[in-house]
Amino acid sequence: MTSFNFKSIFKTINKKNNSLNNQESDFLNNFGLAEFGSALDMLAAAELTTTNKLKKGYLNHAIDEFRHAQLFFKHAKNLINNSNNNSANVSGVAEIGERIRYLNFIGEKPIYSELNELDFINFVMISEAAAEKYFTKLSNNKNFNSETRALFSLIAKEEGHHVLYAKKELEKRRKSGVKGIYKSYLYIKWFRFKTDLLSNTRKIWTKIGDLILALIFFIFIPINKIFFKKNYKFNTYDPRSMI
Amino acid sequence: MNKYVLGISCYFHDSSVSLVKNGKIISAVQEERFTGIKGDSSFPSRSIEWCLNSNNLKISDINYIVFYEKPLKKFLRILNSSIEYFPKSRSFFVSQMKRWLSEKIWTKTNIVKKLKFSSDKILFCQHHLSHASSIYYTNNLSHSCIMVNDGIGEDQSFSIWSGEKNKIKLLDEILFPKSLGLFYSTMTSFLGHQINEGENKVMSMSAYGNNSLDNKLNKVISISDKNIFHQNMDYFEYQFSLYNNFSNKLTNLLGDPRTPNTEFLNKDLVLLSDKSKKYANIAYSTQKITEDIIERQSNHAYEIFPSDNMCLSGGVHLNCKANNESFKNSKFKNIYINFCPSDSGGSIGASLWAWNNVIEKNENILNQDVYLGPSFDNDFIEETLKDLKINYTKFNTYKELLSDASNYLLKNKIICWFQGKLEFGKRALGNRSILARPDNKKLSQKINNEIKNRESFQPFASSVLYEKAEEYFDIDSKFKNSYKYMSVVAYDNKKNTNKLSGVLHVDNSCRIQLVEETDNTLYYNLIKNFFHLSNIPLLLNTSLNLKGEPIVDNPIKAISTFLRSNCDLMYIGNFKIYKND
């Protein structure tokens, strides 16, 4: 299952023109983290669903996503080991967690608990279809070496299977007379569009925020450096105070 | 009437929650266990929900909520760093302000809004005081010296406290940017590992090295008579950078840093290349200087507050090799390191501090139970197995279960063990574990390479029957309170080396957990059953999780882990499941 922000990784990676460089392993690691986050979403669905028949399906889906994540991580590791890269670009474990959340929009609650069962199945179908499309496109990108393209192709194929499972489940429901399937489909389309839009807006605000903060930094910090000395010692202790 | 305190630690790394009822910790859990994101730093909503629901409480039943540090004090330290290191601190300032202004600075408001809790019942403990409380108040000691050593709290990186008659007082401190913890983290990053995750790998790598780079490392950090240690900040950038911990000067001194994920050992577990040798030597010197500095800190602590007891907390004391080396010749007679020295223990410390200082002034209670998280009854587990269409064998008695499991262990099977309540802290202490016999090197290599996908140089811990430990390891009575939490290494005493081949590190050390029947009856009896069959009173024990994932909390996560791993069997509650099912 792809997350909303997955799209931006695809956009960036499609621009690349060297088939073997440090960027490529970073991209692959990001794909791995995104797949990992999706696995967590599916695992949470398996834990929370009250539809017993879906429990196993969600669990199997989660296992597939975990496997995809490992394939990406492993391939990224191989790329690093086969190159003369000397960079030690190491993130802290908390930053990796933040990245997983960012790539997948994992909030305080699992996405399953924000949607109803029907919406969630539609969500899976739509997200998987988008992933299949993007990975297929990447698998035809000659900038990547044959191994990387084969990996994209394999993942695309498996995401396609997930689309079929979700479609099958929706079809079963349609036949048993469940109403509102198309409405739910439209709702998820809107939901994804809205979140995508929010994400892009957030990026713009982040850039504006960076500019403002840089301005503050260059104006106020030097003034403080010249006129004030480190003087934040507190002798009294108030348990209710944040300071 | 019952009184409740809820402790929260979050927004840095390892978010967690603990719930204290009348002075006793009744529930505690890390947020990562629910979200599946290792080291999760987010607001621990799911943990709070579980703590309240599992005890049939509403938020209105809670008397106080305590946050584990003083956010604004930390914020001021960050501002101060930005000023001091202007203009190099620009990107540090921008990234930090974004984090702080969007979330961290609003900690009190967030708690009020998210939990609908009254703001005048929210307390803030200090970071190092939370650490000190987490160890002092869990051991119920009347007189003890306390030492806290971590990367950074609000502005302290090291502190010495006195614990006397239930009161903790600050005696001495070292302030940011000088920090032994951040030095170790910097070297962790230099050696290609994740900060706050890979420090134990540096410890493991160090056993392959020698002292040939000691002189070079001494230029970076060294023992000092005046201020315990001297740290040359020119080699570091963590004081004004979020992403680069070390400066070019360190690279000029030590050469290129190690690229993450590159091989270190060959298939025969021998150093792969000259580069590997260099990195092993850097790890050795890093570990050695850390041990020397901690020993110096300990001596200083004894000078200013002599006591029979020493309580240790803070992330640096997750270094079980340093804990042994630095304190084996110490004047303190009893060394206490418990199950939560890292920041996740901040919630426990903060809630116990509030109980002992704000609510009840003189009622400390012994709090040594580590099994404080979710548990699942056999009916729930059976229902889950049925829903997932997984074939299983049901045992009617625990005796049958233990006999079956120990027989399979004897037959060189690797088993997943999911029983009772989830452990709190970094270590799997026998309720969420992957277990194997300890005398088979091939099995431990299989667990490293095919199951946990760890680096081949990482050794395994072992769980040992308390009464048999001295037949296998050099046991130091000083650490008797710490061995049960896997906080200290012990060395092979050469009496039964052949039975330890799967758990001994290259330097003959092993991180041991001494298990007493009163601590964990089922686990103790499993080891005992295995002992009766094999004449080996210990098991290889590693946490029930795969690479990059936290220890599992519930049956679905456990089954997912089992199905993705190359483990042979899983014992979950009263049930056994197989791989080919």
Can you describe this structure?
The complex is a heterodimer of chains A (243) and B (581). Chain A is mostly helical. Helices cover 75% and strands 0% of the residues of chain A. Chain A has one domain (6-193): Up-down Bundle (Ferritin), CATH 1.20.1260. Chain A has helices at residues 6-15, 22-48, 52-81, 93-104, 111-114, 117-139, 146-175, 181-227. The model of chain A is unreliable at 11-20 (pLDDT under 50). With 581 residues, chain B is of the alpha/beta class. Helix content of chain B is 36%, strand content 19%. Chain B contains 18 helices and 22 strands. Chains A and B meet through helix 2, helix 3, helix 4 and helix 8 of A and helix 3, helix 4, strand 5, helix 7 and helix 13 of B.
Short account of what is shown:
Chain A is mostly helical. Chain A is built from 8 helices and no strands. Chain A has a single domain, classed as Ferritin (Up-down Bundle), CATH 1.20.1260.
Key traits:
heterodimer; A: Ferritin; 8 helices; globular; B: 581 residues; alpha/beta; DHBP synthase; five-stranded mixed beta sheet
- CATH fold type of the largest domain in chain B: DHBP synthase
CATH architecture of the largest domain in chain B: Alpha-Beta Complex
**Describe the biggest sheet of chain A?**
none
Q: Would you list the SSEs of chain A in sequence order as H and E?
A: HHHHHHHH
The CATH topology of chain A is given as Ferritin
Report Rg of chain B: 23 Å
CATH architecture of chain A: Up-down Bundle
- Which range best describes the helical content of chain A: under 10%, 10-25%, 25-40%, 40-55%, 55-70% or over 70%? over 70%
Query: What can be said about the biggest beta sheet of chain B?
Result: 10 strands, mixed
The averaged pLDDT of chain B comes out at 95
Determine Rg of chain A (CA atoms, Å): 22 Å
Work out the number of β strands of chain A: 0
CATH level 1 name of the largest domain in chain B = Alpha Beta
> Which range best describes the helical content of chain B: under 10%, 10-25%, 25-40%, 40-55%, 55-70% or over 70%?
25-40%
